[in-house]
Write a structure and sequence with these properties.
alpha/beta; five-stranded mixed beta barrel; 32% helix; globular; binds uridine 5'-triphosphate
Length: 302
Amino acid sequence: MNTLKIGGRIRTAVFPVAGLGTRFLPATKASPKEMLPVVDKPLIQYAVEEALAAGVETLVFVTNRNKRAIEDHFDRVYELENELLEREKPDLLDQVKDILPRSASAIYIRQQAALGLGHAVLCAAPVVGREPFFVVLADDLIDSPPASGNVLEQLLGIHERHGGSVVALERVPREHASRYGIIQPEKIGERLYGIQSIVEKPDPGQAPSDLAVIGRYLLMPEIMECLEKTGRGRGGEIQLTDALGQLLATEQVLGYAFDGTRYDCGDKLGYLEACVELGLKHPQLSREFKEYLIRRVPLLEP
Ligand code: UTP
C-alpha cells in the first residue's frame, strides 16, 4: 500500500451533469435535471454553494449538448440585472448577480457520449491535474446540520486527519442495494470505515453490507489512472465504483457516514420530499407553507 498524502485544501470540484435523467422524464427531455428547482434554486446551485463553502475555487462541469441552461445559469445576465436595478428590487438583484463569486471560475467540458459516471469524471482529468478533487452529484441534495458543516466539509475533515480518498456513505435498506455502489466496510471509528471492497448495484442478496456510496467523493488524482484502465461495467457504463475498486489495491480509501439528510432528487419521490422539507425551512415561505400542510394533511386518506 502507498503511504497516504495528508491533504489540505481542495481547490477543484467536478460536477458530472451529462446523464440522461431517464428517471425524471418527461421533465428532463429538453432541460437538465440539475436545473430542477427545489423551492427557488436549481439543484446545481445548491451543489455549487456547497462546494464554494468547502473552499473550492474551480468548478468543472462535465456537460452534454442538452445542458446549456447550466452554463447560462452561472453566467451574468446584464439585461435582467439592469431591469431589476431600474425597478428597485435590490434583493432579487443580489440573488441573480453573484451566484458565482468573482474568485471562482467555471469550466465546462463536454462528455461526447453518456458512457457513465466514471467516464464523465475522466473527462475532467486535464483540468483536475495532480491534486485531490471533489466529485459532486447535484441530484443528491444533502441538508446537513450547521454544526457538522456541509457534507464536503465533513469529507475534507476526514481527509485532513487521515489523507487519501474519502467517499460519503449512507445506510440504505437492503432491498435498495441494487441502486448503489455498496462497500464491504471495516469500522475504524465513529462514522468512519475503511473500504475493503466495493461493488456496483449488487443484487440485495449479494450486497456486502447496507452501506452505500452516495453522490459526494473526495478523490486522489490517482483515480484518473484507474479510470483510464476501467472498461465498461454494470449497465455497459464506465463506472466510478469499478475505478475505486482498483484504487483500493494500491491505497486506502475511506468511507464516512456523513451527518445530514440526503434527498435523491433524480427520483420523483425523493425530489418531492426535498421540496417539502426545504420549503418548511425556507426563510420567507416556511410559516405559510407549514400552515398549508397542517390544513391539508388531515384530509389525506391512507
Ligand atoms: P445517474 O445514475 O443518476 O444517471 O447518474 P442519469 O442519467 O443522470 O439519470 P437516470 O438514472 O437516467 O434517471 C449519476 C450522475 O452521473 C452523471 C449524472 O449527470 C448524475 O449526476 N452522469 C451519468 C454523467 O455525467 N455522464 C454519464 O454518462 C452518466
